[in-house]
Structures are given as structure tokens and as C-alpha cells.
What we know:
The protein has helices spanning about 45-50, 85-100, 135; strands at about 1-5, 10-15, 25, 30, 55-60, 65, 80-85, 105, 125, 130-135, 140. By secondary structure, the chain is an alpha/beta fold. The protein folds into three domains: about 1-40, no CATH class; about 40-70, no CATH class; about 75-153, no CATH class. Strands 7-8-11 form a three-stranded mixed sheet, with helices on one face. The radius of gyration is 19 Å and the shape is flat. The structure holds FE2/S2 (inorganic) cluster. FE2/S2 (inorganic) cluster binds near residues 114, 121 and 133.
Amino acid sequence: xxxxxxxxxxxxxxxxxxxxxxxxxxxxxxxxxxxxxxxxxxxxxxxxxxxxxxxxxxxxxxxxxxxxxxxxxxxxxxxxxxxxxxxxxxxxxxxxxxxxxxxxxxxxxxxxxxxxxxxxxxxxxxxxxxxxxxxxxxxxxxxxxxxxxxxxx
Length: 153
Ligand code: FES
């Protein structure tokens, strides 16, 4: 692990906190002893983040239930679906929501060069054929606002 100061701020890492040996920690970062470890499923943390019961699915069953997360979505109570993740998964989720008449909002994961709408590095194709900048018009969209038949940026 490499620690670097930035703008006068030094990272503060507790000796018991996990940080990957190859990580570079820069500036105003504080990690306590019980900081969550990325890549380790912590059911309590997931439930806190989700605001309720959370269920983990992995394709290989290495954590939680085995299978695709789409298999585990219960649409019986007409939920509002919130999706984030890679485009193919969001596209499949958008198809599922459209087929079942469920409302879906997605947070797209486009790379953002400038974050203020000038570089056009973050564009996604809208359902009406326009390219929209996810940094200023998103990154959260109603799924039916986007065209899932074309790859995004
Ligand atoms: S990140 Fe540059 S236009 Fe969106």
C-alpha cells in the first residue's frame, strides 16, 4: 500500500483495516479498524445499504444463491426496481421490467472524463435516438428512456 498526501491531507489508515497491498491511498481518506472489506459479502452491511433485507446472488454460487440476479427478482408486489451494474445486465433487467410492466430506474456506469457536460465521453443512447450525457442528464434514468439495443459509450 502506498499512502500519498494531497492538498495537505494525509490518509489515516488504522493498522487493523484491510487495504490491498497494491492500493494507492491518496489524500483525505480515513479507514477505521472495522472498515468494510471490498469483495467480502457482509450481510449486515448489505442490509444497512439496502435499507432492508438484502439477498446476494452469484453466478457460480461462491456467495449467496447461485444463478443470475434476474432469477431472484420478485415482481409480485409491483415494486419499483432500481438497477446498477454492467450494461448487458441492465439491458436484461430493462427487458424484464418492460415484459412485466414494472417501473425500473437504472444508474448507468459510463466513464466520465469531465463530469460537466463538455467532453461527451459519458453519452448513452436515448430511446428517441439522441445521445444524452449521463453526467448532467443522469446518471439515473427511467429504463424506458434509453435504447438498450446499442452499446453505450
Ligand atoms: S463526462 Fe464529459 S460530457 Fe459527461
